[in-house]
Fold:
Amino acid sequence: MYLTRKAEFSASHICANPQWSEARNRAVYGPNANPNGHGHNYVLEVTLEGEPDPVTGMVFDLRELKEILNQEVVDPMDHRFLNREVPPFDQVVPTTENLAVEIWRRVEARLRALPPAEKNGARLANVRLYETADLFVDFGGPAAL
Amino acid sequence: MTDIAATNVRLTARYRFSASHRLATPALSADENRRIYGKCNNPYGHGHDYTLEVSVEGPVAEDGQLVRREELDALVAERVLTLLDHKDLNRDVTEFGGRVTTTENLAAVVRAQLEQHWTLSTRLAGLRISETPRNTFSWESSR
Structure:
């Protein structure tokens, strides 16, 4: 069974490679390369896969998942300039693809660190990140897809 | 992000178009057409605001992108939206080739348009078309 928890954060970014000319960045990233940046209301959907615990009836504690998403994503990224304030995006272009992968990495590390009793066998199945209502990226982990 | 350079992501972009159509087939009698297609068989036709989701899948390139947004948008605009937006599917879109303009057949037309003219280095992974928010048809490419 799949469980999906949603979270929102708003952030600004620039999609550009600092090694490249402005013209080349425009060609590769379009208006996202604007040197002064721009922002989005990101919507994140994190999906876990597991079996409901026979006693609690829950795949995973939603409060725990909410807390992980707050600590790993919303607190560090909400109302931030990703390129300037949120590593590794001082080094890595914060495209929606790279953001989805970074969010996977952060959430997966937290789940992996949980004691087995708390984790209840649940695993991270998918990270979906909406940059706008009309554009989103799914990442199912390094071995998936 | 070197350790994930070879991993696949899936990107989905949503587009909109508005079109009219009428569901009717000459293979059936007028009564049968009315019975099967109901209101959609109204002789004067009717219209919808369709939404189209195009999904691509593949590894993230060195620029951090699976696909350049402007290339995907241009391809969909040129090959799909200009063909369908503010058109009558029965009369204006010869790509149906006589098939009934159901959203199932519309999805097949869109898929053929994209596959035939696909110029992107990433793979077309799937399509979803909503005729109304209550009716959605999707196709998933086999891997």
Remarks:
- The longest strand of chain A covers residues 2-13.
